[in-house]
Write a structure and sequence with these properties.
By secondary structure, this protein is mostly helical. Helix content is 80%, strand content 0%. It has helices at residues 3-28, 35-57. The protein is elongated, with a radius of gyration of 15 Å. The mean pLDDT is 89. It comes from Dyella mobilis.
Length: 61
């Protein structure tokens, strides 16, 4: 039996959760930027967050 394959979803979930946390922090710090930068960055961050949450939802439980 290949233990590496058994742990792969756990590692992937962990990596996704870390990246989601980084995005949440980046979104929290948007208020420190000027309005132009906020308008430019917010859609990109929200799109990335949506993608990561979707990936997380598709992982096996």
């Amino acid at each position: 039996m290949d233990n590496c394959n058994e742990f792969a979803p756990v590692y992937l979930r962990h990596d996704l959760m870390i990246e989601i946390g980084r995005l949440e922090m980046a979104m929290d710090h948007l208020v420190e930027r000027d309005a132009t930068q906020q308008q430019h960055l917010r859609p990109r961050l929200e799109s990335r967050m949506s993608h990561l949450l979707s990936e997380l939802d598709h992982l096996p439980a």
